[in-house]
Write a structure and sequence with these properties.
Two copies of one chain form a homodimer. By secondary structure, chain A is mainly α. Chain A has two domains: 1-52, Homeodomain-like (Arc Repressor Mutant, subunit A); 55-194, Tetracycline Repressor, domain 2. The first copy, chain A, has helices at residues 9-27, 34-41, 55-77, 85-100, 104-112, 119-145, 154-171, 180-194. Chain A is elongated and about 60 Å long. The first copy, chain A, starts with 8 loop residues before the first helix and ends in a 5-residue tail after the last helix. The interface between A and B is large, with 38 and 38 residues. Chain A binds a DNA duplex through loops.
DNA sequence: GTCTATACGTCGATAGAC
DNA sequence: GTCTATCGACGTATAGAC
């Protein structure tokens, strides 16, 4: 595939996304200047506007891409309809942990910077988020219908389980006491117990 | 108690804390200017520096006060040593929900603005946070020792339960479907199940 | 595609009058 | 205790050369 001579656009675009993600996560959207991002990328501030309409669009694109990746990754690994609710829940828990843990910065931004989106952009992200929540909610509902799980309130259980799983990102460190495999088993046990599933 | 004639200091100090809390929660520490806060309080920007050394100290004081209030509130309602681990856990869950839910802005700031603290200030808040976590950890350990609870990993369970409970703040609304009493029962059930406690 | 230069506003914080 | 005025720095975004 030919590339325009002297052009460096694709690489710069990628560097922009990566630098913005890292800086937004570390210092917060409002605290990071376009100048800082440009410095990290290695271009002048003005040049960034070749790749993004403005700072707000840059933030939105990062969040939107993250949610699209999440939903698509689930689609690609979704289990067939035939498996039991218990298998599906186990699959979801493992998927959630393995998707989110290596994406610390993106996950952090996706929770922390929602308030810095314009109302229109916020709505788009919220819709994606609800779509993801509904995946778990459907699994829990199915399991309740066939007696596998038992909840006082299924909607609240959905929120609670996602909060519990995502909280993993705030303390897990690769160099820490526990391996990824171990935390996966630990959280799986907590979720299954909370769901009232006998294993 | 006499107050200096023409003085309005105590009231202004309180208004400053409240305005800063609300604005930091809504827009983020970095995005809020001292001028904005002053406008909300009804004074000029310069006057704020009679009540806080600088913006950083203002943020730290809000977070530190919140943690002090939390720890003190627990001390005041702490149950005697004689009660069972199950009773203690129930007490903790109800306490956590009832303390955190009416303090949405403070809780939000305490999680979101940690990165905007200087390293020294951050350490102080972290110490308070670990102290609070150890309260729950001790309850879970005691319950595990006498066979009331069962965990694969008690430390992780501590984090998971706190994340689950605090997640309530992100979706609960007073006007919503569920009353405070109801969510309290729902989360109590989830926590007890996750702890493997037979009720 | 990237640069320099710059418009124009706002920032945190201080000085000094009242 | 609060005000006005102000400092120097930095913010986003654009214009136009190369």
């Amino acid at each position: 595939m030919a590339r325009k001579s002297g052009s460096n656009g694709e690489k710069t675009a990628k560097q922009l996304r990566e630098a913005a993600t890292a800086l937004f996560a570390k210092n917060g959207y409002a605290a990071v200047s376009m100048r800082q991002i440009a410095r990290e990328v290695g271009v002048q501030a003005g040049a960034l506007y070749l790749y993004t309409a403005d700072k707000q669009t840059l933030l939105f694109d990062l969040l939107d891409q993250h949610m699209q990746d999440l939903l698509q990754a689930w689609e690609e690994r979704a289990t067939p309809h035939s498996v039991t609710p218990m298998d599906k829940l186990e699959c979801f828990v493992r998927f959630h942990i393995r998707f989110h843990l290596p994406r610390g910065d993106e996950v952090f931004i996706s929770y922390m910077e929602l308030r810095n989106l314009t109302p229109e952009n916020f709505e788009v992200i919220q819709t994606s988020r609800r779509k993801y929540e509904s995946i778990l909610h459907d699994i829990l509902s199915d399991g309740e219908a066939d007696g596998t799980f038992k909840f006082v309130d299924t909607k609240v259980a959905t929120f609670a389980i996602i909060a519990m799983l995502t909280g993993l990102n705030t303390w897990y460190r690769d160099e820490g006491r526990l391996s990824l495999d171990m935390v996966e088993e630990i959280y799986l046990d907590l979720v299954m117990s909370a769901a009232g599933a006998k294993r």
